[in-house]
Design goal:
The complex is a heterodimer. Chain A is built from no helices and 9 strands. Chain A is mainly β. Chain A is globular and about 40 Å long. Chain B is an all-beta fold. Chain B has no helices and 11 strands. In chain B, the strands form 2 sheets. In chain B, strands 2, 4, 5, 6, 9, 10 and 11 form a 7-stranded mixed beta sheet that branches. Chain B has a 4-stranded antiparallel beta sheet with strand order 1-3-8-7, with no helix packed on it. Classes of the chains: A mainly beta, B mainly beta. The interface between A and B is medium-sized, with 27 and 22 residues.
Chain lengths: ~110, ~120
């Protein structure tokens, strides 16, 4: 089965840039979606189809995807960005949805 | 605006069947889209349980497939999930969500329903 690997945690100071990676075999050939989740809340779609932003997602959030790694980049990080972030793809070979293990973003 | 709301018992005994429903408002299920269930065990990450298309076609996580059944009731504009032979490891917050297609993201989510498996 297809596996997505994320670092358990990423820490960044306010105003700096956070990069959260999502690794998978030839993930560059898939559409990657990113969600953020704050404690006690449902996940919220942050970036979809590698780099598109839903209305409501600040332009500070961007995505890229190539080779075996997709990356969610958050520029000018704010305290309010502190959350868990999950990547997600659809594995067409098995018709299954797959989530990464999640990354806790801590704003120092 | 599309809204999803999970409903079902918050406590289920081990070996029994967990049943949850998700009522959709602001969109007619019969029109289209995929409707999914995702769960999150306490302190853990998201786990996809399965999707059901409005026509009734289902897709299940292979690790749960033997225990899960999903259905759609277009007359009530809701979809449901049954999980048999539950154990403590099935204790989780269960979310329902909408996806445009299998490769699309889940764009609308319910608030989640905590289900505890305990005697």
């Amino acid at each position: 089965s297809y596996v997505l690997t994320q670092p358990p945690s990423v820490s960044v100071a306010p105003g700096q840039t956070a990069r959260i990676t999502c690794g998978g075999n030839n993930i560059g050939g898939k559409s990657v979606h990113w969600y953020h989740q704050k404690p006690g809340q449902a996940p919220v779609l942050a970036v979809y189809n590698d780099y598109d932003r839903p209305s409501g997602t600040p332009e500070r959030f961007s995505g890229s995807n190539s080779g075996n790694t997709a990356t969610l980049t958050i520029s000018r990080v704010e305290a309010g960005d502190e959350a868990d972030y999950y990547c997600q793809v659809w594995d067409s070979s098995s018709d299954h949805v797959v989530f990464g293990g999640g990354t806790k973003l801590t704003v120092l | 605006q599309v809204q999803l709301q999970e409903s079902g018992p918050g406590l289920v005994k081990p070996s029994e069947t967990l049943s949850l429903s998700c009522t959709v408002s602001g969109y007619s299920i019969s029109t289209g889209y995929y409707w999914g269930w995702i769960r999150q065990s306490p302190g853990k990450g998201l786990e996809w349980i399965g999707n059901i298309y409005h026509s009734g076609t289902t897709y299940y996580n292979p690790s749960l497939k033997s225990r899960v059944t999903m259905s759609v009731d277009t007359s009530k504009n809701r979809f449901s999930m049954r999980m048999t032979s539950v154990a403590a490891a099935d204790t989780a917050v269960y979310y329902c969500a909408r996806s445009g297609e299998m490769a699309a993201p889940f764009d609308y989510w319910g608030q989640g329903a905590l289900v505890t498996v305990s005697s």
